[in-house]
Amino acid sequence: EAAVGGAVAASAFAYNRGNYLNDAGFRWERFCSAREYANQQAEQYRGDLRTLAGLTVKKNTLWCVTSTLCMALNVALYCAGRLGLHGPSPPAWIMGLWLTNNAASFAFMAVCIFLAIHSSFRAQAASTQLLTRRTRVPVPTLRQLDSARKFASEFEQQDWGDIFRIPYVTNNGAPKTDDANYGPPKEQPSGKGGRSRSAPAGRRRTTCSSWVREEFETDRDGESPKEAVPSDAAPEHFQLWREVQKDFYQHDIYARVSIFYGFVHYVQSLAYYGLGHINIELRAFWVAYGCAFVIAVLQGLLLRFEIIPANPSKKQKLPRCEYLGPLAILPAAIAMSLDFQVAYDRASIAICWVLIFVAYILQLVYSLRMLEVVLPDAAFEGVAERLGGSYLPQGWRKVPSSFYHVFYFVAPPEKLQPGQHDIVREVKSGGAGAYGEVIGTKDKEGHAGLDYEDLEAMPAFSDDKHVEPWKLVSSIVGVLPICWCWLLFGNVIDVAIGEQALVTAPHWSRPPMTRLSKTPHELGTPLGFPWPAAAKPWLPEQMAWHEEKRHAGMFSFNRRLDATDEAPAAAP
């Protein structure tokens, strides 16, 4: 019996030692394979950060370049292309419509550049920080490699029960790594009990072989599991980037809104500029209408493309009033025709003023509507994520919902999609799976290494709450209604006392100041005559510089409503 017992023990020892050596080889391969997959996925995660940052950088770089070019066009209208440079000065009311829109366009483009620069560099800096500090390739340490490697002599350190385990009689010591162990328990059909193929019915061991338990403990040696998180929780780099985006997502979005506001105001200023240029300098009656209406249609199409209310809970106080902006060009075009008609007629002048006020009132309502749509929605939570569309997580507010379809903003996903796995997290914290089965304790899914206290310590706009982007853009939009009210008031004054009654008459060499110029600045004007400018009656050549319905010596007060049809006598 002793000989039989010794032979059985020797056979069991040799059998289990062979299993140990075989498992040791598989253990090393499993360790290296898991780290290789984790390293490849970590490179994918680093590519995710570069892609997310690159989207913001490319968008805002394009907006910066476009805004700079448009600002150059604004300056061109202010300087070399301004009205009155090659001929008489246009009426003040058309300059008010033209220059105010041009100034608004310049302001919006400037704000867009600063917002785009901040969001672009903030995204690039955040990506660089994450790539160099947090989202690193999980290369194993030498200690982890030594722990994964096993020597044949270490079989002697295993439990006696594992060294002399009798096959097919006792528990086989292998863990359950089938799919049923990773998900919720499946109900077995009645009369059919599930068991491991090599384990006899009724004999189930709660723990595995000592070297198997040591292998799974080594997997969790890198990071202890923290609070339980769902298995489909977003990877660590997505969580970090989502928190970083809170610092510049408003800058990104309002840079897009600002460049649209700048461009649409530039288009409208170009329409008013065309009315002045074609009527005054080119003297083309019908062409002025054709050019202005084409640009008005362009402005309407831009507004139709950009402004689409997406928040059904937001009450629109001025629905569709954005189209009053292009519509204001029509009364302005008719008013320019009446203002430059051949025959003097008081009825035409009165109708002209009525149309002028209509154009300004339409501009006022239009600017109020543009202010309404640019204000952020306090209760807007965005729409469901779709391929190619914008996506904002829940809780991201203070964005204008009417421009949601043109944000081109993508936030990282909040959870893994079906079929996706985060092996980087599993390598760091041991993952889930068969750990509880092997160790004999209730499994607890590990965390990806990111403390939620870290996320709460990263509030958006922690240093610049007083310069939130929506406040910057809304401030400029809010100034425009004030400007139109001011210009309406100015037009009322012009009706009462006459246009340009508050400024000095135009002069070739004298600046428009209250003091008179001294000799020799009044000599030889404007064509080089040797006598002072007011010494003799004006010649037709001289009057070519002042022909805005003005004669030499004519008093400018109330000249537009003067009942005298004949021109006054020339000054001596």
Explain what you see:
It is a single chain. The chain is mainly alpha-helical. It is rod-shaped. It has helices spanning 2-78, 92-133, 142-148, 160-163, 210-219, 236-245, 249-282, 285-306, 324-327, 329-339, 346-374, 423-429, 435-439, 452-456, 469-497, 540-543. The longest helix has 77 residues, at 2-78. The chain has 16 helices and no strands.
The portion of residues forming beta strands comes to under 5%
The SSE order reads HHHHHHHHHHHHHHHH
**Mean of residue pLDDT values:** 77
Q: Can you count the beta strands?
A: 0
The low-confidence runs, each spanning 5 or more residues with pLDDT under 50, are 179-206, 442-449, 458-462, 508-528, 548-572
Query: Which secondary-structure class do the elements indicate?
Result: mainly alpha
Overall radius of gyration: 40 Å
Which helices and strands occur, and which strands form pairs?
Elements: H1 2-78, H2 92-133, H3 142-148, H4 160-163, H5 210-219, H6 236-245, H7 249-282, H8 285-306, H9 324-327, H10 329-339, H11 346-374, H12 423-429, H13 435-439, H14 452-456, H15 469-497, H16 540-543
Helix pairs in contact: 1-2, 1-5, 1-7, 2-6, 2-7, 2-15, 7-8, 7-10, 8-10, 10-11, 11-15
